[in-house]
TrEMBL record:
Gene Ontology molecular function: any one: phosphoenolpyruvate carboxylase activity
Residues making up the signal peptide according to the UniProt record: none
Any Gene Ontology CC annotation: apoplast
Organism: Nymphaea colorata
SUPFAM superfamilies: Phosphoenolpyruvate/pyruvate domain
Record's protein name: Uncharacterized protein
Pfam family for this entry, one: PEPcase
Superkingdom per UniProt: Eukaryota
Amino acid sequence: NPRVTPEVTRDVCLLARMMAANLYYSQIEDLMFE
């Protein structure tokens, strides 16, 4: 696929990492305030 450049791959990986970090953060926050 010519549209999948290294930049696109990097951006998708960064986005996935940020989403995972946000998910972990919200779960930890929930545990802190239980």
